[in-house]
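Propose amino acids for all 221 sites.
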């Protein structure tokens, strides 16, 4: 069975992509412009490498597939828990064969825990999958080892036929099969206006407590 490409699964490539971007920046600039190194400092609190204005187009089989944008990339490779931080935001776009954007991941900040192979996205987290469904939340985790995406925060989901909101969420990496733990609202799509204040603020200003607690975690796909 042919699997649906996932914007989050694409992030598995990000360490390689970002490293390649740094190499490309170095080659084009003829030196280390754009990168800063530190040594003999507190490795827990100070980055061992800082890279600014990371932006790269990535090709697959000769076709441009991805764009990565990150204003600031901090590497803490010598910390007890090695990690990469993107404190000023991270954006990933996936393109189809005609360079039309078909999926996106965007957040205010992101952290990658290298040993755990775990991503944490924070702030205004927005994911649009390849079938056009939109997910908004305050915090999202992606466990590469378990191939699972999850959140304990309020989540707002826009599908073709309905809009769903709730607290607690688990999903496959394609963001196409998922469960909402505690459903707080289900609305027909024709009663919902995209771009409304409710949509724009959903990730940061969730509504009141859920009306129902669904302990069986029914699948809403």
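Proposal:
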């Amino acid at each position: 069975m042919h699997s649906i490409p996932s914007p989050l699964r694409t992030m598995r490539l990000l360490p390689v992509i970002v490293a390649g971007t740094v190499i490309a920046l170095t080659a084009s600039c003829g030196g280390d412009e754009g990168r800063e190194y530190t040594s003999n400092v507190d490795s827990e609190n100070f980055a061992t490498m800082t890279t600014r204005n990371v932006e790269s187009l990535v090709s697959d089989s000769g076709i441009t597939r991805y764009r990565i944008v990150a204003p600031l990339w901090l590497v803490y490779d010598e910390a007890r828990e090695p990690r990469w931080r993107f404190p000023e935001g991270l954006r990933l776009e996936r393109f189809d064969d005609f360079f039309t954007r078909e999926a996106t991941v965007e957040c205010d900040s992101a952290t990658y825990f290298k040993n755990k192979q775990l991503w944490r996205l924070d702030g205004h987290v927005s994911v649009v999958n390849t079938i056009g469904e939109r997910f908004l939340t305050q915090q999202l985790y992606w466990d590469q080892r378990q191939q699972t995406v999850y959140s304990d925060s309020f989540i707002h989901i826009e599908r073709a036929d309905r809009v769903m909101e709730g607290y607690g969420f688990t999903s496959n990496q394609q963001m196409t099969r998922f469960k909402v733990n505690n459903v707080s609202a289900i609305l027909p799509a024709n009663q919902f206006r995209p771009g409304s204040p409710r949509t724009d603020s959903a990730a940061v200003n969730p509504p009141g407590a859920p009306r129902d607690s669904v302990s069986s975690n029914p699948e809403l796909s």
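The mean pLDDT is 77. The two ends are 19 Å apart (CA to CA).
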